[in-house]
Amino acid sequence: MRCLLIASILAGIVGSVQGHRAPVTARKSLGFGPIHPHAVYRSNPYQIATNGFLPQSPDADPFEVARLFIGDILGPNQDQASYKIRPDSYTDPSTGVTHVYVRQYVHGIEVADGNMNINVKEGKILSYGNSFFAGTPPSLIAVPDLRNFRHPQREYCQDLSAELETQFNVFASTQNEQAPMGDQKTSKSAAFAGPLTHLYYSNCQFDGLADDMALKRPQAIGDIGDMRPALLQFMVAATPKADVVNDILGNYDEHLNKMSVSGVNHFTPEGEQTYLFVDNVPDTVNPVKANIAYIQIPSKDGSVELVTVWKFEVEMHDNWYEAAVSAIAPHRIISVVDWASDAPIPVPDAPKESASYNVYAWGVNDPSEGNRTLQKENFDSLASPIGWHSLPFANDPSYRSVKPSNEFYRNTSTTFGNNVFAQENWEGQNAYINNYRPEAGSSSVYDFQYKPKVSDSDEAMAVAHNYINATVTQLFYTSNMIHDLYYRYGFTEVAGNFQQYNFGRGGREGDAVIANAQDGSGFNNANFMTPPDGTNGRMRMYLWNTANPYRDGDFEAGIVIHEYSHGLSTRLTGGPLNSGCLGWGESGGMGEGWGDFLATTIRSTANYSDYPMGAWAANRPKGIRNYPYSLNETVNPSTYQTLDKPGYWGVHAIGEVWAQILWLVSQALIEEHGFSDTLYPPMPLENGTVPANDFYRPAVGKKPLVPKHGNTLSVQLVINGMKLQPCQPSFFDARDAIILADEELTGGENFCTLWKAFSLRGLGTDASVQGRTPWGGGIRLNGFATPTTCE
Q1: Residue 141 forms part of a structural domain
Q2: What is the residue range of the signal peptide feature (predicted)?
Q3: pLDDT tens digits, 502-537
Q4: Is 791 among the residues known to form the active site?
């Protein structure tokens, strides 16, 4: 009964050859092959030494070292005709390791899965892998014993079917479901089995037709001259189109006769594989490349034997396959690899419209600089692959219902997503999951009124609460923009960024930013709590009672950016799992300074201006710092030695000095390289690559992309410097880390530009400090010298 039920599920999802095929949510992609029990990988020096191979001279040719090592592995009865070193072997200039790739040959025919990879450095074998066939070579044409011949695709499909049955049993035990009772229960079961069913659909839907077709067109044992029957056999399994399958089965001879085979490519370099080319193959977009080869198949008795196969390279609309099909009928598919790799990111079943928000757009710092406009959800396919309003059910702390069995992601219609949980927190408590959030419904339009009005002091709080929808929307929008921007500059999953789900890209997940708007725990402030990677960061934004009506810190982007940047600098300095590296003194002050610098850089334009910090929220034109950030020494006289002045022991005051120095550094880079109107890198293409434009310099090999303009370059160097500096860095450490970051990124072309800029405010090579204390005290001396190469 279970098998019948599974069959009905499969029929409901993938349809049949005769009927209309139901749509699927992911492309079809074959992928299976035999497991080689004899394959080994050795990376331990003692394991390598057991072969009796001794290190050669450090100056020895690494390819000659590899040949000697292969000889030791293969033994005295083998010669160089039994293998070829592949032309894609190379020496990595960054590591000095030579990667040697070797393919096995028997009777001059390649063994498609007989491989060695040998890693050589300075005459030593660092590691190697080996899957060479080690048995007795067969006759020229390896005809398998069909009584002992395994069927990799059939076994794969049988195992998958068994797993489907097991999973259904689990599902049925929780649902109290018996035999299918109509379409509703079958549909419910099918939804549960969705992911496994897709695998079955891709690899096994037409498996039963393979042997049927072989019986229709029997081929004599040993007759391998015509690869067309084997190729048609593969196409029945490879095509996702039921009508193509029906056409092949119904018009087999016609298709066979249409397929023409041309000779070898005479332009193939000597020593490389030659191919036949097959035209007019159903559902392909280019001629199929074919060549004869051996492949290793474990037999039922546990041994391994070579089988003669046709190896095909089949290019289709959505797939590009390398397949091995037995040359002897019945033409069984032995192995298949799809060169078109899907990203390991599930896609929501139902596409949703991008959200839009009535907000102060990115770059508009606060209400004094412009009006609110409707902005689209500007998520980046690298930084936020599923947008701002989706996250996996399994990673959603707010979801309490039973997850739909065939869905991976949950789409939300509130300010709740993979990067940010934004909500009110009027009570000022730690609870956030059930706090109020604006609801956009199916429209995904977050357009809410914001018209604060003057009121009596006892009503001011209620007035502010009335526009909470607009407030939370703004906080959600700004925080997601920061997430995506910093991601593109290197604050990724492995670096410890803030995401509930990391898409299998490393780092610890479960740590989206909890962003509380109008937090009731205080006034006239903001803060960000940064625990180690894997625990949610927490941002608290406050109302400011510095004006009537109250001003809301959520509407001043500079404050939000400053707070979020605490999470950036804390996670990058000393590593994502160490949140104790910016706690006090100069290091704690720089934690504040980076936030001011990045917030000011993000709001700046090509028309230079001085900028205060927190001016709108505080209702103070000069802002909440001692000085605005300025090139003019009379406007901002801060130098390194300013840290010794009374009142400069606190982290905020120390941070002002660091931010001012960084402001001068960035302006020097802008003078050298120009200004970009956007700090945001170009959106990646669908294949994940970044398009060529005016943002980056032309790419050079595999080197990292270099921002072209001074303001973008300064952000990149500052963030890269955070990664290079030590835990508890001093001003000197952070300065040197930025200069090192430029050395690694550009080859040091800005060495003197950076040193001259740092020296302008006393952080030159001769600057010094004595008796530095945890709270920032000490005796400092400005230094205005630069390296002699810069004089």
Answers
A1: no
A2: 1-19
A3: 998 888 999 999 999 999 988 998 888 888 899 899
A4: no
